[in-house]
Amino acid sequence: MTATLFINARLIDPEAQTDAPGSLLVRDSVIEGIDAEAPEGAAVIDCNGRALAPGLIDWGVKIGEPGERHKESFRSAGLAAAAGGVTTIVARPDTMPPIDTPESLEFVTRRAADAPVNIRHMAALTKAREGREMVEIGFLTDAGAVAFTDGVRQVTDTRILSRCMTYARGLGALIVGHPQDAGLSRGAAATSGKFASIYGIPAVSPMAEVIGLDRDLSLVAMTGCRWHADQITTARALPALHRARDAGLDVTAGISIHHLTLNEFDVGDYRTFFRFTPPLRSEDDRQAMVQAVADGVIDVIASFHTPQDEESKRLPFEAAAPGAVGLQTLLPAAMRLYHQGGLTLPQLWRAMSLNPAKRLGLPGGRLSVGAPADLVLFDPDAPFVLDRFTLLSKSKNTPFDGARMEGRVLGTWVGGRRVFGGHA
Amino acid sequence: MTFRARHLLGIDHLSPPEIVTLLDLAEDYVALNRRTVKHADALAGMTQINMFFENSTRTQASFELAGKRLGADVMNMAVAHSSVKKGETLIDTALTLNAMQPDLLVVRHPQSGAVNLLADKVNCAVINAGDGRHEHPTQALLDALTIRRAKGRLHRLTIAICGDIANSRVARSNLLLLGKMENRLRLVGPATLMPAGAGEMGVELFEDMRAGLRGADVVMMLRLQKERMDGGFIPSEREYFHRFGLDAEKLACAAPDAIVMHPGPMNRGVEIDGTIADDINRSVIQDQVEMGVAVRMAALDLLARNLRAERGRAAAGVMV
């Protein structure tokens, strides 16, 4: 039995929504007490007033296994996560081949043992992510799938999606949708408007997101399934989300950290590391979404970590692969929102740790007695300039290369075991 | 006589006394069918036409045998392969046949309500041998006879109907019949195979098969209607069998003397484990086939009697 006492900490408790000095006692793999007496022989870590919070739960991480291990492996993703204060990765099923059978889920579950952090898996919603036949939601749930999604591929046939939802409801399974109308979004690499027009980039109106959301919410109302929108990125989609909640639908929504910290102009001179799906939005939308997170309308912030090799990005903008790595930059990027005054640390941790845990039925995300000792110790104010080649991910496609950032992770613990940072 | 119907289009139109009358008469035919000489003359001189707009082996054979054992001239029309292909409408086909003066018409059609439509256009008695997802009354009646013989009664039983209910006309007719006879009914299956509005049908719904079978006296399995599926009701046959296939472990949740039924043809290893289907102590699946011929003889007999009486009244100039 080992005990560790964190003293002089600034405790960030997303459940109580508090940010206050205190100490925290960990015994073995769980949190044993807040401001509790240390037992004889406990190791003491002096946090020097730095912030101690539940480890981040990053919902929607792409790992290149199977199929693209040169872009990311469970090992490299796990190391990047630990360095970024992420203690649980919720992995995406859009691999090659996709995770669409209990057998393939078993494979990645075994491979995930290489990572020093917790890894949970989502499974595809339809076989081969083709939108034609549902996967074995029952077997996959039994095998540990925490949610079902075809990633950025929308199931365009509403009859098939409604059957998936009806079947999932009976098993209590969570479906994650990508509410972007497939027709309007086809080929788009930017949000339509003056910027995209002048630069001549194929673009899509944010209305594609409204259409996709309206469609999916209608099906949720029809079938009664548990549903989560992976990314809601425009203010115009928020009224539909409000209506769905008012109607009692079991609906939550997320957003990527990039849509909260960057806008369409950041693409600048065709910088492909700023190509995302959905594309970056206007500054008005970005600000509205920060407010929506503060209000709790948007439940989850995640990195949508999408490793791409250099060749996938060294292409004309519209031909480049979308997405960015984010496991290691989620926390410092979120600190931008904290320092700009838009969000408090407890609000950020509600979206980056507590809510994903609650929605996915995971034990972490809390600073309460009995919760797993998945913790991150960080200095929210420590400044640095990001050099993408220092990232531990195999892929280095970050939009924050060269950016001035604040927020440095000092230590990460998973189940009471230190996985990052040698000293506090 | 209590059986007044002119046609047998569905269970919906039958009263409990009519059902009992038919089942009682069928009992007589069970006895007849077990003799070496199986002839009776209830339909002597009458013409029975079996029109199957949808492929069938067992039901068509059952109706053919029933008619022949009662002395009718039976003709099978494989309509699926003939005039329909040439573009004739259902009503024209019916009128053509009607002109040949049949007395009994047995019709199966892939579309719900088609048999009712046809019955309006002909002068003979019509038996619905299954229309789309609507009704299959003789199947429900033969199931009822099988249950009555196995359990000694046809009321106050807990009956679980399991599987592909949304696509099943057998389930609808059974729900109506067993409901009329005051049984406790349960529907068990994935939500994708439950008909909309099932919650308002006076039945209990279960998505957990073990819970749905708990204490059941009768376990009625349905065939997964692959041909009626336009894709995507279930993820795979193996997951379906895991969750909703009847095996020994799930059957153990039912009453110890529960009987197992299946309208056939079975998909072994999909909705039912082969060893359960073959277990002579639990499975009454072969009895159902035997009862099928007797019930169809009773139905043909009763409709023929009503037809004769009607024609007699018409000939005597009695107002009806």
TrEMBL record, chain A:
GO terms for cellular component: cytoplasm. Residues 49-234 form the Dihydroorotase catalytic domain. Its EC number is 3.5.2.3. SUPFAM superfamilies: Composite domain of metallo-dependent hydrolases, Metallo-dependent hydrolases. Residues 341-420 form the Amidohydrolase domain. The keyword Zinc applies. This is Dihydroorotase. It comes from Paracoccus subflavus.
UniProtKB/TrEMBL annotation, chain B:
One of its GO terms (molecular function) is amino acid binding. Residues 6-148 form the Aspartate/ornithine carbamoyltransferase carbamoyl-P binding domain. Gene3D superfamilies: Aspartate/ornithine carbamoyltransferase (3.40.50.1370). Its EC number is 2.1.3.2. It catalyses: carbamoyl phosphate + L-aspartate = N-carbamoyl-L-aspartate + phosphate + H(+). The keyword Transferase applies. InterPro entries: Asp/Orn_carbamoyltranf_P-bd (IPR006132), Asp/Orn_carbamoylTrfase (IPR006130), Asp/Orn_carbamoylTrfase_sf (IPR036901), Asp_carbamoyltransf (IPR002082), Asp_carbamoyltransf_Asp/Orn-bd (IPR006131). Carbamoyl phosphate binds at residues 58-59, 108, 136, 139, 264-265. Keywords: Pyrimidine biosynthesis, Transferase. Pathway: Pyrimidine metabolism; UMP biosynthesis via de novo pathway; (S)-dihydroorotate from bicarbonate: step 2/3. It is an enzyme of class 2 (transferase). It comes from the Bacteria. L-aspartate binds at residues 86, 169, 223. One of its GO terms (cellular component) is cytosol. Residues 157-302 form the Aspartate/ornithine carbamoyltransferase Asp/Orn-binding domain. GO terms for biological process: 'de novo' pyrimidine nucleobase biosynthetic process; 'de novo' UMP biosynthetic process; amino acid metabolic process. It holds the Pfam family OTCace. Heterododecamer (2C3:3R2) of six catalytic PyrB chains organized as two trimers (C3), and six regulatory PyrI chains organized as three dimers (R2). Reversibly catalyzes the transfer of the carbamoyl group from carbamoyl phosphate (CP) to the N(epsilon) atom of ornithine (ORN) to produce L-citrulline. Belongs to the aspartate/ornithine carbamoyltransferase superfamily. ATCase family. This is Aspartate carbamoyltransferase. The gene is pyrB.
